[in-house]
Design a protein that fits this description.
Number of domains: 1
Order of helices and strands: HHEEEEEEEEEEEEEEE
Low-confidence stretches: 2-27
Distance between the termini: 75 Å
Largest sheet: 15 strands, antiparallel
Shape: globular
Number of strands: 15
Strand content: over 45%
Number of helices: 2
Length: about 300
């Protein structure tokens, strides 16, 4: 009887072991969660870069709007005019920044050299302003994050006109920005970015709408808006495949459009789609975007997450 009990216990133990082994063999091993932190950095870095440089370029455009407005009262917010130099048919304005921008969202510290033709007035069609930024540090007030810019932008008023005249006999204004800028990030890495961005303003001042797209080309990539090396050291090429739409009443946050980041060094493609609400649903016409969808595709995996703007 005792031997029978021992045999029964042994058989039960053996069955449990076999069952456990089979369970281990059939259960899938959980996949390692994808780290999206570097992907998020690139998208947020580029947005900060665009907002900060657009801000100073638009200030410079307003400063140069007419001959009679090139004085102290029309200087960019938080800046002083150190000197003006006339050389042949070219004017140079040397500006020092140390204060808040007009919207009081950015603190700007550094220097800018503005070069323009003496006969050119910014509201004229195809007027070009050359802006060189020197140790130009921009700090975002909301979170104290900053970038430092060294480089140039050529800012062209393709259509002509002034933003304050939109909706009053003027339907749209198109600006183009070509640039080559060295960017220093908060981790003190420094990279060089190229810019080829088009901006189309519509609406009635001051309630403006903005569409942006890229027109740059490099190698196999077209429709580039920004390209260079990200802070992780990877070459990237950013295309806008559907114009990105922004509105002033939405604090210039994107509400529509698609942007694609190509990172050939790591065989990765990132796609940003704008126009989602706080519940990750597409927004309705007239609503402001709250989130965007970040999709990634590598050789071995893919996925997506929703992030706050």
């Amino acid at each position: 009887m005792k031997n029978l009990k021992l045999t029964a216990l042994f058989l039960l133990f053996f069955a449990l072991v076999i069952s456990g082994c089979k369970k281990d063999e059939t259960e899938p091993i959980p996949e390692k969660e994808t780290d999206t932190s570097e992907m998020e950095k690139l998208s947020y870095d580029e947005d900060f870069f665009m907002r900060a440089t657009d801000d100073v370029l638009e200030d410079v455009g307003n400063f140069l709007s007419s001959e009679t407005q090139r004085d102290m009262q029309d200087l960019p917010c938080g800046s002083v005019l150190d000197s003006t130099i006339y050389q042949n048919d070219t004017m140079y304005f040397y500006l020092t920044f140390d204060g808040l921008n007009c919207n009081q969202t950015l603190y700007r510290h550094g220097n800018a050299v503005v070069r323009t033709d003496m006969s050119a007035i910014w509201p004229q069609a195809n007027a070009v302003v050359h802006v060189e930024l020197i140790n130009f540090k921009v700090t975002r007030i909301s979170d104290s994050k900053w970038m430092i810019f060294n480089g140039y932008h050529d800012y062209t008023n393709v259509s002509g006109g002034m933003l304050i005249h939109l909706g009053n006999g003027l339907e749209s204004i198109e600006h183009h920005i070509d640039g080559d800028v060295e960017v220093t990030f908060m981790d003190n890495t420094t990279k060089t970015w190229q810019v080829a961005r088009a901006k189309l303003f519509t609406g009635t001042f001051p309630d403006l709408n903005l569409e942006t797209w890229g027109y740059g080309s490099y190698g196999e990539y077209d429709d580039l808006v920004v390209w260079g090396v990200d802070r992780a050291g990877n070459q990237f090429y950013t295309q806008i495949t559907l114009p990105v739409e922004r509105r002033k009443d939405c604090f210039w946050k994107p509400s529509a459009g698609i942007k694609v980041y190509n990172l050939p060094d790591i065989n990765t493609t990132l796609t940003l789609t704008y126009g989602f609400d706080e519940n990750n649903n597409p927004i309705q016409p007239g609503d402001c975007g709250k989130k965007f969808k970040l999709e990634w595709q590598t050789i071995n995996s893919g996925g997506f997450i929703f992030l706050w703007l």
